[in-house]
Amino acid sequence: MIFILRILLTAVVVVFLAKFLPGVTVAGYLTAIIVALVLALLNLIVKPILILFTLPVTILTFGLFLIVINAIIILLADAFVDGFDVSGFWIAVLFSILLSIFQSLLFSLAERK
User: Fold this and answer.
1) What's the pTM?
2) Around Cβ 55, how many Cβ atoms within 10 Å?
3) Which of 31, 32, 47, 72 could serve as 11's disulfide partner, Cβ 3.0–4.6 Å?
4) 34-44: per-residue pLDDT in tens?
């Protein structure tokens, strides 16, 4: 049940950010749910591999390279999902930062009940 709630909250944040960020478009609410599912899968499978391969750079930049990895995950989701478009790398960086902030806020509110 928590997983479904997190997917739905992520989809809401994706739609919200697509309305306010230039360069990010989402075709509809179903597409946003698919984007949330794809992001969850990419974060589960691809992100640990990227972190492992880029560990020296991540350590050298004191963890700031993780922002780049998050942007790459967003761009991968853009490549996999039709109807979700991110226009460039810097928009993906901004989108990933804002998505992380909003997810943290909403997930902490959802856990309080």
Assistant:
1) 0.92
2) 11
3) 32
4) 999 999 999 99
